[in-house]
Design goal:
Elements (H helix, E strand, L loop, with lengths): L13 H18 L1 E5 H18 L4 H10 L3 H15 L7 E8 L6 E7 L3 H43 L1
Antiparallel strand pairs: 1-3, 2-3
Length: 162
């Protein structure tokens, strides 16, 4: 029986699991949203929530503790300067897990792990990408219509010569 045994092993050794969670935390804090398996997302959620709660204290000792876990100095700076002022007021629950369905290759349940108040950042990026796609499609349609007009001119010239 597994009485009082918390956490998932994720099929890894302790050191590999620690490296995985550290990497997931770094990626989440950097990109504000990551796509991973459901089990990893749920485990990383606990890890990141504890990290943000600890970071709310915002002193040198805590910064060094966070640096021991997060692999990127820029991400640590961003955590303390941008993320904490935005979501530091919350009494916990800084992350959200959204279930996506199953992965095609191995039918593993997939999920998105995201920071709660950063939906607008991701949505703005998505809107910018959509605008770029629409602009490219519009340019392609214009180019296609120009080529159709040129073909029509060529056809009309050839008929005039007869």
């Amino acid at each position: 029986m597994r009485h009082n045994v918390k956490g998932r092993k994720l099929g890894r050794t302790a050191s590999h699991r620690a490296a995985l969670l550290s990497s997931l935390a770094t990626s989440l804090l950097k990109h504000k949203r990551i796509k991973t398996t459901e089990a990893k997302a749920k485990e990383a959620r606990i890890f990141v929530d504890k990290l943000i709660t600890k970071a709310r204290k915002n002193d040198l000792h805590v910064r060094r503790q966070v640096m021991a876990v997060v692999n990127d100095k820029e991400v640590v700076k961003e955590l303390f300067s941008d993320i904490l002022p935005k979501i530091g007021e919350r009494p916990g629950g800084y992350t959200r897990v959204v279930k996506l369905g199953r992965r095609l290759g191995d039918a593993a349940p997939m999920a998105i792990l995201e920071l709660v108040d950063y939906n607008d950042v991701v949505n703005k990026k998505a809107e910018l990408q959509k605008e770029k796609r629409d602009l490219k499609a519009k340019e392609k349609a214009e180019k296609k219509s120009e080529s159709a007009i040129e073909e029509a001119n060529v056809v009309s010239e050839s008929t005039n010569k007869k």
